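Propose amino acids for all 197 sites.
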């Protein structure tokens, strides 16, 4: 696999896109930021459903950023901005982001060394947008890899979303030619006092 993992459509992206599709009537006018977007399937679905979307991936990953732009062009979404944002780093681009209602992240909890940086960025965005939520899907790769302690550390609330509740528990939905077993989970993360969007 390419070292810039964002050049593949991972099963988690399919599941998150299914969640967005199931909630498409709530998306028009929502301000959505996808982090670690890669090929941007969830962000593209959100934009096609009427959300105001900004796509982002690591500023040090030019092929991933190009992949975001290519997905926008292929889906006739040339107006969707693509930004380089690096997890755990407060940059001028991060500070200049417009308000958001929903942050999307599919399979961003891939490498444990990045977990805290991801949650640092998410926490910063949630503090800036207290009613926002982080909708994320992740592949269960190891019982030893968990974000629960970090959620407690950052005092973030999480809610597990059963895949069957939005029709994503079908065997072939997240089918993939990529190697390995694909057990996908979805959680919504917010600040404790948030009522959500």
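Proposal:
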């Amino acid at each position: 696999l390419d070292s810039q993992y964002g050049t593949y459509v991972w099963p988690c992206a399919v599941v998150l896109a299914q969640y967005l599709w199931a909630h498409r009537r709530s998306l028009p006018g929502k301000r959505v930021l996808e982090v670690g977007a890669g090929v941007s399937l969830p962000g593209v679905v959100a934009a096609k459903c009427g959300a105001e979307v900004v796509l982002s991936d690591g500023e040090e990953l030019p092929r991933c950023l190009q992949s975001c732009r290519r997905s926008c062009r292929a889906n006739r979404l040339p107006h969707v901005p693509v930004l380089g944002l690096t997890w755990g780093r407060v940059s001028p681009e991060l500070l200049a982001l417009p308000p958001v209602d929903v942050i999307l992240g599919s399979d961003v909890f891939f490498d444990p060394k990045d977990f805290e940086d991801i949650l640092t960025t998410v926490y910063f965005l949630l503090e800036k947008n207290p009613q926002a939520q982080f909708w994320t899907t992740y592949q269960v790769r190891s019982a030893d890899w968990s974000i629960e302690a970090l959620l407690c550390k950052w005092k973030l609330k999480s809610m597990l979303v059963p895949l069957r509740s939005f029709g994503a528990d079908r065997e072939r939905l997240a089918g993939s030619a990529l190697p390995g077993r694909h057990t996908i989970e979805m959680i919504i993360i917010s600040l404790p006092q948030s009522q959500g969007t």
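The longest strand covers residues 133-139. Residues 115-128 form the longest helix (14 residues).
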